[in-house]
Specification:
ibrinogen binding protein from staphylococcus aureus fold; 555 residues; coiled coil; single chain; 23% strand; RQC_Subunit_NEMF; 4 domains; alpha+beta; elongated; five-stranded antiparallel β-sheet; six-stranded antiparallel β-sheet
């Protein structure tokens, strides 16, 4: 987020959030703070991110997954902040200042440094004395060290002979002929890269440097804004003005700065997979890769072991011809009883007696035979583990709360995908069953579906009755869905079955396909085998329906 976009977004959100009370503070990952603000009319969520290369602030509508226990800086903000009194930008810099009234009535300032390779957040008291920082580090060439108890000071203005907002004649533009964008970024302050490229394009089209600069300043001061996301020269960009000369690909325009930023950074957060959710996803995906490599190797070993019968036949043929074998021989041709009219050449160990050579062949056969049994058992175990990992991956992608994330983390610990923590942080008691959703069919029948393996197991064991209907997308990871039948001995209306099947497809890996095949079974046909992995069941009978996937939020 560049200096122009920061100015635009602060001007946009200030009337909405100034005077709002801090209802809650969340920290979904190491670099992000979400302030839930109540302005007397509605709740707003202000996202502050200091992720390197993806820093910014804006009002968000996207869901952000919070850890079960708040992190250090989040706990500090919860214990101090009460009301947001004002918000402003350090002139010409990528720094936002949020002024709060503390719970004890004292003034507080939250400094959000959005620039450089090490962005940070600093909480200061009324005298700008640092109470604590989000990232405790030594700083870099752009950031001075931020230590508790020190006085926070704004960095000096950036280098440059010309100030963007002061106007004036650019009388030293010799470098513009070679690299106009680079020259502007070195000599004009502030000068975001996107604006430098735009002005360079105007100058290349013959526009005077001073005139191009003044024209942009006039349009900006008149409030001309255009919020968009897209690619410029193959690089994703977030803009607050409409470029004239820049070629933009895949542009999407938005009505407000926050909407543009919300779309831009939600996509970036998804790609970076930050926080606990992203860490767990990476672990599961690595486990899936290892499992696939193991499966490929087992298939190769099975092919190599498939000629075990050849060694047995060679041993039997050699036994029938022992009278012809002498110690010291290296090979012998024998008549092949298994393929009449042909001979088989058997390689011998010259150091062994004839009978020992035959025993060697039988021993090779027995070893391969045992290997085949072991390989088949490993393949069966691996094939049983793969659907569980795929379902776990889907559940992590769809997770909707910190409680659901904690359930999945515990499941991974039980499966030894994660080491068990010797001392777990204290957590609030989990109410209900995290990951369990509820809805209604068109006919008013209750629907329940699980967003993780534990919720799915709960459905099968405690919710699904013999006359209910159970749904799951065929041969793909997805939720278990139960359609309750109040009259257990009566058939369920077809419209309700098709609706439930479409929901089961929507909450599965087939959610983006045009149509998906869904298994429909009576509750009496669904069983949880003893010792089965979480979320796995045995079905004794079902029929299939083909439906278009749909998604509902549930209750």
């Amino acid at each position: 987020m560049d200096v122009l976009f920061i100015e635009a977004v602060i001007a946009e959100i200030a009337p909405l959030i100034v005077g709002a009370s801090v209802k809650r503070v969340h920290q979904p990952d190491a670099d992000t703070i979400i302030l839930r603000l109540w302005n007397g009319r509605r709740e707003l969520r202000l996202r502050l991110s200091v992720a390197p290369g993806a820093s910014g602030l804006y009002l968000t509508e996207n869901p952000w997954i919070n850890p079960p226990a708040p992190l250090r800086f989040c706990q500090l903000l919860r214990s101090r902040l009460s009301t947001l009194r004002s918000i402003r930008q350090v002139p010409g810099d990528r720094i936002a200042l949020l002024f709060f009234e503390g719970l004890d009535g004292s003034p507080l300032r939250l400094v959000v440094e959005l620039y450089g390779r090490c962005p940070n957040m600093i909480l200061c008291d009324g005298q700008d004395r640092i109470i604590d920082v989000l990232h405790r580090r030594n700083g870099d060439e752009q950031h001075t060290p931020r230590r508790k108890g020190a006085i926070w000071t704004a960095p000096p203005p950036g280098p440059g002979r010309y100030a963007l907002w002061d106007g004036g004649v650019i009388d030293d533009a010799g470098g513009l002929h070679e690299n106009a964008a680079g020259w502007l970024m070195r000599h004009v302050h502030p000068m975001p890269a996107l604006l430098a490229m735009e002005l360079a394009g105007r100058m290349a089209a013959g526009e005077d440097p001073t005139e191009a600069l003044e024209k942009f300043v006039r349009s900006w001061r008149c409030g001309e804004r255009s919020f968009w996301t897209g690619e410029v020269d193959g690089v994703p960009r977030l803009g607050a003005f409409r470029p004239v000369c820049l070629k933009r690909e895949q542009v999407q325009e938005f009505a407000s700065a926050s909407q543009a930023a919300d779309s831009f950074y939600a996509r970036d957060a998804s790609n970076r997979c930050s926080g606990t959710q992203g860490q767990l996803l990476r672990i599961v995906r690595r486990a899936l890769s290892r499992l696939q490599r193991r499966l490929d190797k087992l298939h190769q070993e099975r092919v190599a072991a498939a000629d075990a019968e050849t060694w047995q036949r060679a041993g039997q043929l050699l036994t029938a011809n022992l009278f012809r074998v002498r110690k010291g021989m290296t090979e012998i041709d024998v008549e092949n009883f298994y393929d009449p009219g042909t001979t088989l050449r058997i390689v011998l160990d010259p150091a062994l007696a004839p009978a020992a050579n035959a025993e060697r062949l039988f021993a090779k056969y027995k070893k391969l035979r045992r290997g085949i049994d072991h390989i088949e058992r490993r393949i069966t175990e691996t094939l049983a583990e793969k659907p569980w990992l795929e379902a776990l991956e889907l559940a992590l992608e769809e997770v909707g709360s910190g409680e659901e994330l904690a359930v999945l983390e515990e499941e991974m610990q039980q499966a030894r995908l994660l080491p068990r923590q010797p001392q777990k942080p204290k957590r609030r008691p989990v109410s209900g069953h995290p990951g369990l959703r509820r809805g209604l069919s068109p006919g008013g029948l209750d629907l329940y579906w699980g967003m993780n393996s534990r919720a799915n197991d709960y459905l099968v064991r405690h919710v699904c009755r013999p006359g209910d209907r159970w749904f799951h997308v065929k041969d793909r990871p997805g939720c278990h869905l139960v359609l309750k039948n109040p009259r257990q001995d009566q058939p369920v209306p077809e419209a309700d079955i098709l609706y439930a099947a479409s929901l089961a497809a929507g909450f599965s890996r087939a959610c983006e396909e045009g149509a998906a095949e869904v298994m429909v079974a009576e509750g009496r046909a669904v069983h949880k085998p003893k010792g089965a992995l979480p979320g796995q069941v045995h079905i004794t009978g079902y029929h299939s329906v083909r439906v278009a996937p749909r998604r509902e939020s549930g209750l």
